[in-house]
Each structure stands twice: as C-alpha cells, then as structure tokens.
Specification:
This protein has one helix at 178-186; strands at residues 14-19, 25-34, 37-41, 53-59, 63-75, 78-83, 88-91, 98-99, 104-109, 112-122, 125-130, 139-146, 149-163, 166-176. The protein has 192 residues and is mainly beta. The radius of gyration is 18 Å and the shape is globular.
C-alpha cells in the first residue's frame, strides 16, 4: 500500500474508531500515520486485544480518511495498528480537532478567574481541562497566548463532564474580534 500525500498533516488530529466485532466506539489522537502503520494516543481507556479489527475515521481540515486497521499492541501509551485497507479520502463531515500541548488559558466565569489547560482546538472552539465545573450554557470570557499572539473571545460552555477529579469542558466561540480570529485560524495551517 503506498503512502498517501499529506499523511503527516493528519498528525495531531482526532480519530474515531469502532471495533467491528462488537461495535464498541473509541477515540484518540493520531500520533503518527504512514504507509500501513498508525499510532494513536487515547485519553480514555481503549481496551483492545491484538488482532481486533476496527473501522477508523480521521477528521482533517477539509477532508477525512476512512479505513480499516488491526490492533497490534500498546507500547509507551500509544496504540499501534496495521492499516489493512486502502485509505479513502472524502469531504470532511465534521470540523477538524487538533490535539495541543503546553497551551494554557484563562477563563473568566462568574466574576472568577480560572486557569485551565487546553487539550484540543477546532476552528470554532476548544476543549479544556480544569479543576472547577462550569455550567453548560454559561457564556465566559477567555484569554490565551499562542505562537501567533494573544487571543481573547467570548465562548459558550457546550459541555462539562467530570474526568478523573477534574472537569473536561468544551467551549464554542460566540464573539471573537477579527484580528483574534485571524490569529486563531493560523493555528490550523498545514493541517489536512
């Protein structure tokens, strides 16, 4: 199987996959994809057995990939798969999400300032982890620094769920200035 052009642009993007034997759903982040090999980092438990067949969808910026793969092993926190079918490219059905590291955000909610860690970003929002719950539907002000400059925006809390003693929160932008929007979109340059 020959390597598709642009495989590197899927690194860091979200992957959803389903075990074909029992239809169990999983998700994670593409750590590496090339030739017939795929490495995924799962944030939640991915209980797989060697040889399990899975159907993958990897969401890019303008296109997504779909293919089957077999689970090989789990070493160093990465799940290794052998791609067993041709990767089909199709127009993206959902918005790209990129895993990020070393990005902090300040959230201003209920006249309180809360620090959080950004886990993933999309053109329309971001996923963060923090120590305090914020109610779904609440409008918050956010501020963060990126490699392209500081960004401020209002955002709506789309979900808040407890994960290991902390809270995973999805934020969707509701009001972002033109310059901030330009800085945000530049974070997706080079993505699939």
């Amino acid at each position: 199987m020959k390597q598709m052009l642009g495989d590197a642009s899927y690194i860091g993007t979200r992957a959803r996959f389903q075990r074909l034997g029992d239809a169990k759903l999983f998700n994670g982040w593409v750590h590496d994809i090339k030739n017939e090999s795929l490495l995924i980092r799962c944030e939640e438990e991915c209980t797989l057995a060697p040889g399990d067949r899975l159907l993958f969808e990897v969401a890019g910026l303008n296109e997504s990939l779909i293919f089957e793969a077999r689970f090989r092993d789990n070493a160093s926190g990465l799940h290794a798969f052998d791609i067993s079918t041709v990767r089909r490219h199709f127009k993206a059905q959902e918005t790209i999400r990129l895993a990020v590291s070393n990005m902090e955000i300040t959230i201003f909610a209920d006249s309180e300032q809360v620090q959080a860690i950004v886990k993933d970003i999309s053109p329309n929002g971001l996923g963060v982890v923090l120590d305090k719950a914020i109610q779904k539907g609440e409008i918050v002000q956010i501020a963060l620094s990126t490699s392209h400059g500081s960004i401020e925006s209002k955002a709506e809390v789309r979900y808040c769920r407890s994960v290991g003693g902390q809270f995973r929160i999805g934020l969707q932008f509701t009001d972002m200035a033109r310059i901030d929007k330009g800085r945000w979109i530049r974070l997706f340059e080079g993505a699939a």
